Amino acid sequence: MTERDVTTSSDASERPKPSVKHLSGAGPAAKKVAGARRNPSVVGYEDTAPHWLRVVAGWSWRTLVVVAAVAVVFWATSRVQFVFIAVFLALVFTAVLRPLVKVLARIMPRGLATAVSMILAVLGVAGVLTYVGLSVAGQWENLAQQFNDGIATILQFLEDSPLHLRVTNEDVQQWLENGQQWLEENSSEIAGRVASSAGSVALLFSALALATFCTVFFLIRGEDMWHWFLNQLPLRVRDTWLAGGEVAWYTFSGYTRGTVIVAAADGVMALIILLLLGVPLAAPLAVLVFIGAFIPLIGAPLAMVIAMIVALATNGVWNAILVGVGIALIGQFEGHVLTPLVMGKQVSLHPVAVALSVTAGTIIAGILGAVIAVPLVAVAWAVFSRLRHVDPPTDFDHLEDDDGAPPVDLVGDGPPGTQPA
Predict the structure, then answer these.
(1) Helix (H) / strand (E) containing 108
(2) Up-side HSE of residue 135: CA atoms within 13 Å toward CB?
(3) How many of the other CB atoms lie within 10 Å of CB of 207?
(4) By the 8 A CB rule, do 212 and 118 touch?
(5) Rounded to an integer, what distance in angstroms lies between the CA atom of residue 285 and that of residue 326?
(6) Are 387 and 244 spatial neighbours (Cβ–Cβ below 8 Å)?
(7) Residue 25, domain extent
(8) Under a CB-based contact definition with an 8 Å cutoff, are residues 33 and 43 in contact?
(9) CA angle 85, 89, 94 (to 5 degrees)
(10) What is the pLDDT of residue 166?
(11) Distance (Å, rounded) from C-alpha 212 to C-alpha 412?
(12) How far, in Å, CA of 155 to CA of 140, rounded?
């Protein structure tokens, strides 16, 4: 470099640089530069926020959108709760009757197979109800005397216990008089509730009628209806909807059929135990066990408690204990043998997820929510598991030494490779 070049470069570095104020009147290009310095989107002012804060903010608004969408779905469902119940029952009936329809469709038209399957189902339910009614009517005469003797036995047991709880017949008579007085004072309110219950019963039968109507079409043309729905979607999303729908129906139908089979087995085993122990009202109590099996976690224990109370009031303490032991053994057989054998891997939910689902469903929609919460959560999880991209699992065993202590680079002594050998 020559002396002239050095002088020229030094003079150029000492010249004052034009400011934005000077450039603002120099032309359109200068105005763009000046505007760029005042525009955060150009300069990148968002980069001044920490990376973790931007990530949390992104997840936060996305989570809010998802929660809002779920809230809208729940609100819309509550507005058409009657239709939702009818469609849900129709899907349950379809899942239970579809295997029978497929078998009968091999030897007769599908419409006739559907009609025969539904008639057989109605006759089965009517037969069970008739058996229960005849059992109650046949034992009703001796049941009152057995309950009176059982209550006297319970009162004597409480008096002889270490607590010495003495309850006399006068106390029982006083409780009955107080109950009668309460009924007289609240007769108008009770009448209103009875009328409301009558309306609910009529609504229930209407829902059953609509569910039966939908079940007929689901059994006859269910696949055609599903294919028609898929054809209304854009071509690019049909494969995704097809995969999600298949796994959803596989999970829902498997859970429904498995629950019916398990509940029926529980009811039959409970009936056998109650008959062997001589407990009255064995058939109604077995039906109660069958119904309670549809409510996970809480249904079967409640049915067990009611059966033990009946056994206690009629046959004494030891008979009630034997009933409790027998139904507990049924629960263990169901949980460890029957349910895994019937359902297999169709429904894979952790017991904590089941408990939380039942609790949330009960809070939101009462008994109905407790019944439908687990299948809905199972279907949602199955669809999510089918459509998501799963990274390979991490093997955490290599992160520990033979003695169980973590390697040196995880203790905080420095980055890997800087520790002494």
Answers:
(1) none
(2) 17
(3) 20
(4) yes
(5) 14
(6) yes
(7) 19-69
(8) no
(9) 150
(10) 67
(11) 66
(12) 23
Separation between Cα atoms, residue 376 and residue 164, nearest integer Å: 50
Q: How far apart are CA 319 and CA 286, in angstroms?
A: 17
Region of 19 please: left (phi>0), alpha (psi -120 to 50) or beta.
beta
Q: On the CB side of 179, how many CA atoms lie within 13 Å of its CA?
A: 6
| C-alpha angle 351-357-358 in degrees, rounded to nearest 5 | 90
Token readout for 419 is: 């520790």
The C-alpha atoms of residue 248 and residue 282 are separated, in whole angstroms, by 38
Residue 179 identity: G
d(CA 177, CA 179): 5
Output the pLDDT for position 232.
92
- What is the spatial distance between Cα 274 and Cα 262, in angstroms, rounded to a whole number? 18
**H or E element, residue 212:** helix 187-231
Residue 213: per-residue pLDDT: 92
pLDDT one-digit tens code per residue, 404-414:
555 544 444 44
Distance CA 204, CA 93 (A): 15
User: What are the angstrom distances between the C-alpha of 390 and each of 11, 237, 250, 251, 345?
Assistant: 63, 20, 21, 20, 18
In a domain, 338, yes or no: yes
Whether 284 is in a domain gets the answer: yes
CA dist 281 and 284 (Å) reads 6
Q: Round to whole Å and give the CA distance between 138 and 131.
A: 11
- Residues of the chain where predicted confidence (pLDDT) is lower than 70: 1-47, 138-173, 176, 183-201, 297, 343-348, 390, 396-421
Residues 313, 317, 322, 324: is their CA dihedral positive or negative?
positive
Residue 400 within any structural domain of the chain: no
Q: Are 383 and 247 in contact (CB under 8 A)?
A: yes
Please choose, from the candidates 290, 301, 215, the residue with its C-alpha nearest in 3D space to the C-alpha of residue 259.
Answer: 290
Look at residue 60 and tell me if it is in a domain: yes
Please enumerate in sequence order all residues whose Cβ is within 8 A of that of 409, keeping only pairs 6 or more positions apart, or say none. 415, 416, 417, 419
How high is the pLDDT of residue 196? 58
- H-assigned helices in 27-168: 28-38, 40-43, 51-79, 81-104, 110-160
Q: Structurally, how many domains does the chain consist of?
A: 2
Distance CA 111, CA 219 (A): 8
